[in-house]
Automatic annotation (TrEMBL):
The lineage of its organism: Bacteria, Pseudomonadati, Pseudomonadota, Alphaproteobacteria, Sphingomonadales. InterPro entries: AAA+_ATPase, AAA_lid_NorR, CheY-like_superfamily, Homeodomain-like_sf, HTH_Fis, P-loop_NTPase, Sig_transdc_resp-reg_receiver, Sigma_54_int. Gene3D superfamilies: 1.10.8.60, 3.40.50.2300, Homeodomain-like (1.10.10.60), P-loop containing nucleotide triphosphate hydrolases (3.40.50.300). The keyword tRNA processing does not apply. PANTHER family: DNA-BINDING TRANSCRIPTIONAL REGULATOR NTRC, TRANSCRIPTIONAL REGULATORY PROTEIN. The keyword Cell wall biogenesis/degradation does not apply. It comes from Novosphingobium anseongense. The modification 4-aspartylphosphate is found at D51. It comes from the Bacteria. This is DNA-binding transcriptional regulator NtrC. PROSITE patterns: RESPONSE_REGULATORY, SIGMA54_INTERACT_1, SIGMA54_INTERACT_2, SIGMA54_INTERACT_4. Member of the two-component regulatory system NtrB/NtrC, which controls expression of the nitrogen-regulated (ntr) genes in response to nitrogen limitation. Phosphorylated NtrC binds directly to DNA and stimulates the formation of open promoter-sigma54-RNA polymerase complexes.
Amino acid sequence: MTVLLVEDDASIAIVITAALEAEGFEVVHCETIGARDNLLAEHRFSALVTDVMLPDGDGIETLGAVHERFPAMPIIILSAQNTLDTAVRASDTGAFEYFPKPFDIDELARTVRQAVGAGAASPESVEDAAIGEGLPLVGRSAAMQTVYRMITRVLRNDLTVLILGESGTGKELVAEAIHQLGGRRDGPFVAVNTAAIPAELIESELFGHEKGAFTGAVARHLGKFEQAEGGTLFLDEIGDMPMQAQTRLLRALQSGSIRRVGGREEVKVDARIVAATNKDLEPLIAAGQFREDLYYRLNVVPITLPALRERTDDIPALARHFLKAAATEGLPRRQLSGDAADLLSRQSWRGNVRELRNFVYRLALLAREDTIDAANLKPLLDQMRPAPAEPGEGDAIDTAVSRWLAEVRPVSGTVYDAALAAFERPLFAEILRETGGNQVRAAQQLGINRNTLRKRLGELALDPEEFARRG
Ligand SMILES: Nc1ncnc2c1ncn2[C@@H]1O[C@H](COP(=O)(O)OP(=O)(O)OP(=O)(O)O)[C@@H](O)[C@H]1O
């Protein structure tokens, strides 16, 4: 088996050649894109290992075309840090492995061996490994295969990953998988939900504080960055992070160091960053609510998780997986018949895998039969899930809106803001009623920051105490 090595630095080429030969490959070496293309035209290679900056140009730009011509030939890119973004962009176009320089030469040789062989980096192996690690990522749909492929690409490096996808699609699970299967598995996995922390505490949460930094700071506190030293820092709900904290986060990512609140020294930090959001960040950037430069910093390798409706063929496997999981947690052991699985697949799961999971757990508890078929399932579905909206069901809201517009149209200010405020007040009141005036729970249910809730309640002249008395 012959590997084509494109590397213009002679000493690096010698070392790589020796390592590949020790792994049993023959190596053909060249130094330019022109020579590479001539060789590719004349010979078949088992793999291509290539540097990025070459004497006759940027090797990456033409790799998409090479991959198209030889889709079965794995391509391994060697690159210095400053060409990361390009490398990642190129990797989106095909099946590439990516090695930032400096790299472990033996690991490179092993990677080439794996890429050429049966493919330890195949999507199935991630799934199997994940199950083995107790981190099940269930689903073999085409959409999930793409996700697995992306995961394998980031396991051997520390590139920043941005996981995108609707709520409940498994973003946190993917972040955990990247940690558990990657090179940092022996370090800590620290998750922080940036939306759940009050704005004034977020910096101290992330960067820590020194004793006496503010009232109540009775001892030095290490922030999540330092807690994640040597491991992975998972920044969840990044789209909801307050602006000021975004600025500090960006600085930390750029410099690789943090300063504790109230502290003077810069502390070096070493944590792999994986961020996630269910928000579309581009409109937030346009609205000035998310820093564009931070977005580019985080969005080095985007992994987009499909909504469950885009992979309904995974629903039977997921449902059976959750039934099994429920049984190991002490719920009755149930089976799902084929027609019941089909029926589940035809439902719309707006809350994605989380909604399906919760439903299946309730099903395990409430079903009367050990094997649930479609006939058993139907009444439980009707009972446990609100019926899909009938045509015309939105009429009540339509009428309310037109009446509001006709009667209360604000004389000054924009209609949009006034309409939102008009809707917000009864919504907040209803949720406060449900939670007996508990602002923490109300904020959780609404899915907004507790501080934002408190501020809006003040502006809307809503007193949570009143609901506590009533509730
Ligand atoms: N592919 C999957 N296989 C098995 N379980 C999954 C899968 N995807 C999600 N889950 C399960 O669904 C639930 C929701 O997943 P997770 O919390 O990772 O979603 P999320 O996208 O991070 O949600 P949010 O945006 O609301 O934080 C969890 O219980 C998780 O274990």
